[in-house]
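[Automated response] Your request has been received and processed.

Submitted sequence:
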Amino acid sequence: MKFTYVLVVLALVAFLALFGSEAKRAKKGEAFMIKQISNKLKTVCPNQKKHLKQVLSIVSSVDLTLRFTHSRIGAIDLATKQLRKANTKIFQRLTKLDRKLTTITKMMRKAINGDKPKSVTICETKKTTITCKKGKKMNILHANYGRLNKNTCGKSTVTNCRASTSLGFVQKTCKGKVSCALHASNSVFGDPCRGVRKYLTVKYKCE
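Generated structure:
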């Protein structure tokens, strides 16, 4: 009896290897493989039909299990692809939402804090007009007529020249207005450093 089982198993392994490629390609190949195994086993042990049926039943069970496993793997793969696609769409929507929120935040900050401070430089003897948008008025933060660096409006070694009347005059002229004209001149601010090329710098904010 043991010898019979050994022959059955050996025959099964041999024919599985021989016809394995055909079995994987189509159902027809699988049926052909099982038929060949059955015929071969009958020639080896024709009186063991009961055991042959058991072996074939095991083969069929294994085949069904493999098919089921393959189908589940396919379903998982499909679900994974769908999940990735959904995640991509969600990420794109979140990115757009983040951009909108960033824009809204900037607008809110601008509305709360007003415009950023602006600066203007007017070289000596020159004139200019500074303005704010309609509905906003100027607040003068800083003003100086003189020279604080070497390269603005020409070159000079003097870097600490200040007219004490600078801030007061500009505030009086421009504060609370939508626009105002400024003239960088010794006749307006006095001459804080004779013989030096000067300029007027004004820093203001529209509120």
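Summary generated for your ticket: Confidence is low (pLDDT under 50) at residues 5-10, 15-24. The helical segments are 2-25, 27-44, 49-113, 166-174, 186-189.
If you did not submit this request, please reply to this message.
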